[in-house]
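ok so for the tutorial part 2 we go from a plain amino acid sequence to predicted structure tokens. step 1 is just haveing the sequence, like this:
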Amino acid sequence: MRTPSDQLIQLLTDQKLCTQAELDHCEPHVRRLCQDLPDFDSVWLDALVQQRFLTAWQADQLQTDAAHTVVIGRFQRQRALGRSTWLATDEKRVQQYVLRAAPGGNAEDADHQIAELFAAADRLRSTRPAALTMPLEVIGFPSADRPDSFRNGTERPSRWLVSKFIPGWSMEELLIRGGRLPWEVVAEMGRELLVALTWLESARLLHGDLVLRNVRLDLRGGIHLVDPFARRLYNPVFALTDQLTLRDCDGVAPEQVGTGRAPDARSELYVLGCLLWELLTSRPVLLSADPVTRMMKQKDHDIADVRGPVPDCPEWMSRLIQSMTRRAPELRPGSSAEVLKLWKAAAGNSLSQCRTLARRMPDHALRRNLRPRMPARHTAASWLWPTAAATALGILVVLAARAGVLPQTLRLAPEAARDVASGSHKPEVASKAVGPVALPPVDANGVIPLEPGRTYLAERREFPGTLRIVCNAEPPAEVIVPAGKQWVLQARSLELKGLNVAQQSAEVVAKDMNRPSISQLLAVQSGTVSIDACVFQSPAAEDNFVGVAWHRLAGSEGMVSIRNSVFAGGGYAASFNHPPRRCELENVLLANRGSGLLCEFKKGDADSWDLFCTNVTQRFGFSVVDAVVQSGGISRLNLNMTASESVFSPQMAIVRIQPPPGWRSDAMHVQIRGGETGNPVVVPPSATTAVYIDRALGQPVSLPEAQLQNDGVLLADLFFDDTKSDAVTTSEPGSPWRSSSLVDFEGPKLTTMMPGIVVSRLPIK
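step 2 — the prediction. this is what the tokens look like for a chain of 765 residues:
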């Protein structure tokens, strides 16, 4: 048995971060990770993170001198949300909260200021709207009871503002993931924010930090304005200093620049107008990399009419946003109540559009619950339940004997008796039919439940709403596509989970050579598609083949989400006949011999496409993305890829573009950027970032550097688990995908975990 150090055990138990039962549960995992090496505490922390008993942030803190800062009073901090802000849970890990460190300085002044804010809010607490999330309490620690320092050497705050955490998505996250929001959604959000500001004005308070990250969409479609008073507490007066960042410029009206003027109701309206402008356009009101230049431009010029970049914005909304964003405060409305009255008259009181947006988010179900925790095992009274069960059974037998209803003795058939006597009888696990069985029909809720380990024959299915084909246990359900056919699924929204999809074997195909040739394993027609824990095995000998072909449903913008899945075989992993508005890949292995994704751009499509990759590994194929622009379609192409903790090993290039005749290289732009934290995408030095087909030369040519932006790419030699090297060790011996896991690369490591796929989260084949 392996065990962590006494110091780590005491640290975990004293702060109630982990129980002994959870440590026992991780022991086999640690033994597998260490093999013949010592089980250092860092390995135990990695195992606890992988088993989801600790967060990565907590494990990082526990390895530093700041280990005592994980627990604040009755709250356990889970991860950082922003500057001086953390997500936390209570002692029972049932409720989530946000902890914000109150500013230092004079303790009496800070306590007096916080007390005034709470008193003003309490006077009208009964009328507070649901759209405003106020701090619940302030927790404090006497200086003698708190540790001396944080990890960065600064004094540990003695006061913390506690607020309820709103599960869902911030507006900043929504814009990054999906681009601009429809004006119908912004209309509902604007009304809710104006309601919150109107209530604050009635209490003679100001929010002070109206920015994208402080507006959240909850899981039911409600809008919440969070984190009030933060800027007032930390930076009461805006100042132009050499430490100013673009993030500090958000939420500041032009009259506050260089004047020392305090914010008021009119400055709040200006900031709200800018926020709504950004939601409609998905970009800042002024494009400038220098914060001082940006603030001076806002002071000298009014914000441009939003109908320029967003022609479908209604005239009433554009007019109100313009009135709120006049650079002279005297020209703006006098209060939020004035704007709210006009806004309500045009937008109504419904939240239907926000609710629809929340339901359509691919990770809606994942954000509903907290991470599961393993309850502690109690072994002291483990003998009680067998004793009680035996006693109850004995009483039932006695009562049944008196009533004459005892069951008869089981009698075996002669053949079965001989098998048992000779020891040759092998009991069957279940009476399942041999070979593929028919795919069940769709029930009234749009669900096709599949049994683990059973093999089904692919059949066409259609449903007008959300169609869900799921297998919620291991091993995954097998779905066999008949030779020469494709599996066709049609629905408004499609969810696949726990499936292994493959074509019939080569022997079966060879018996019937008259079948028509089909180049798609799964053909999907839907508005949105979500794939989780699935394996798509295309025929290895087929080059002109697609594992999953997504055909966008007419009238929908399209969303594609693929998680914890594997694509292998010949041809492409997936193809899109139109670029989906949002496309996310998380922990996905692209191991097709052709390429990863194929996307076609046609007339009416947007000329910009965003692709988000997290823990994605691409191997064996020529490229990660192939973009084909049809003639008579878009006039230019902007392909933006955000990749973090990923590994791309293409034979030719990360991106390949096939433009229509007559296109020049300056009509194509490719951007590859990394995430905010963690490792960037790691690519071997031999790979090219982007190429396009030059029709005059009839061959691929590298895209000019002026049309490239690859800040998120790290060139380094890669060492996969199948590489013959003394430094290579098998991380997941039982997984068929271990050969595609990265064990090392020649370059700086920003995290303790290797980028690329997490093998333990991928389904078995």
